[in-house]
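Many introductory courses stop at the sequence. We go one step further.
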Amino acid sequence: MPIHCKEYTGCDDVIVGQIYEAEKLIPAYDLVDVGYMSKEISVFMLYNHELTYDELESKRALCFEWGVQITDCRFRPLDDICNGYNPAKRNGQSGEEYFIHSNWTDKGIRKFRRNVRRHNICVRHDVDYHSSLMERKKIPRDVAKKYRKQSYDEIDKKIIPDAWTSKVVHDINEQDFFKIKTN
């Protein structure tokens, strides 16, 4: 609705669509040096749109380097009145059930959302990795306490098999934590 936007906001110009030049700009993370803690800063990421899973996953990993959280938002066209996305569905959904951009898949959408959730937990708790088993108290408390502050590279992956780190870009086909069987 660019005409409506121009009339009611007083903007000189309204741009419809993505501004590709803006993707090359570095956010003003120098704000961290003026009293803000980096983990109190959040970067907004629009997924299920023109940038692919791989591109956004690279940006997510960079945000971890900077120590900032991510606010994510799934793109949906304004004229799409049906939002059948169901995050609880484990077998996935099709493009008939909700809008999936041609650059994305249901698998990519779900994986990116899980990665952002785990990323934000790591940033908020100032830890190097996330473990669903530890989060759900499936690992004995004394063992969890021992490993809690260790880096991802230091922990024993046999004891914490679902350890996931925000430091790296995760491939869309990588085995995910909730599919790992534990004894």
